[in-house]
Amino acid sequence: MPARIPVVDDEDFGIVGHNPRLCQVRTIIHTAAPSDASVLIEGESGTGKELIATALHVRSERAALPFIRINCAAIPSTLIESELFGYRKGAFTGAHNDRRGLIEATAGGTLLLDEIAEMPVYLQTKLLRVLQERTVRRLGDEHEVPVDFRLIASTNRDTSQMIKDGTLRTDLYFRVSTVKIVVPPLRERLDDLLLLSETFLLRLARKYKKPVRGISPGSRSILMRYAWPGNVRELESVIEHAVLFAHGEYLMPEDLPDQLSTSRQQNFLCVIPPYLTKEDIEREAIAQTLERTGGNIKKTAQILNYNRPTLYRRLRQFGLRNSA
Fold it and tell me: What is the total count of domains within the chain?
């Protein structure tokens, strides 16, 4: 039967999973959030970097103040400077009024610079000066204005390579990465995939008023075999598609998007959760075979190709039968 859908603890801020690396991320959030230390979040697109940034803000003493986000990759390089630093009337063609930038607008809150590595190098120098002196000068202005904000930056790029290439200033990197959080991609925490899938399913089933309450074994197998290049964001989209097209209580393979069924997949007889040792797998095989045979030692030994003394020895080793 499909697994029971778990309840997510609100204390996790919607960051779902029990993978050790993700647990470490949560520990860093709880430790770093109350401080004013700058935080750099590194991770592939779709891994949940903005969710982590939000958690850092709402856990901080600045939570009641503005949380402003800007995506450095989504704004033309010619406009980033005026967006961040603001300008005085007449500073350039089209500057008809004074305008404060997002750094000033943060006003004691938190500023998230998403994809900071896409910022032009000359602006990195200007940002570094703001972080060091805590003052900002608008374009076309002679005066500097004191600013108070906490900086969180994120990137999906390899920062070490960018520093080598000269596209990311070393001094800025060290200034923004007082605390560094590396978010693992979904393919490296497949032990959380079903928990995430079922969490999305529960929420989306309520949203669309669908009677879906679980994921079929066949669908779970397909989900576990997929490479997930789009990470958690792609998984959420896949589950939303499946919920919309589901006709019964469980998500079936035919409900899943085409890219999952057409991707290269090996025909495994079963899907083994990651991070299990050989002993873990053997123990589970014996325990499940015993259950299917109703505890019949002879049949279990035949199915698993053990002689009976070896099976008894394994039972004692794994604590499956105290009387064995």
Answer: 3
Query: Which amino acid, 106?
Result: T
Give yes or no: residues 313 and 218 share one domain: no
How many whole angstroms separate alpha carbon 196 and alpha carbon 200? Answer: 6
How far apart, in whole angstroms, are the C-alpha atoms of residue 182 and residue 274?
Answer: 20
- Write down the pLDDT at residue 241: 97
* One-letter amino acid of 252: M
Half-sphere exposure of 287 (CA within 13 A, CB side): 12
Question: 141 is in which domain, residue-wise?
Answer: 20-183
CATH at 288: 1.10.10
The partner residues of 182 in beta bridges, in order of sequence, read 42
Contacts of 79 (CB under 8 A, 6+ apart): none
287 and 166 in a common domain: no
The predicted model scores a pTM of 0.77
Retrieve residue 323's tokens.
């009387």
19's tokens: 């993978």
Neighbouring CB atoms inside 10 A of 20's CB total 12
Q: What is the pLDDT of residue 11?
A: 62
**CA 70, chain centre distance (Å):** 19
Q: Residue 57 domain-assigned? A: yes
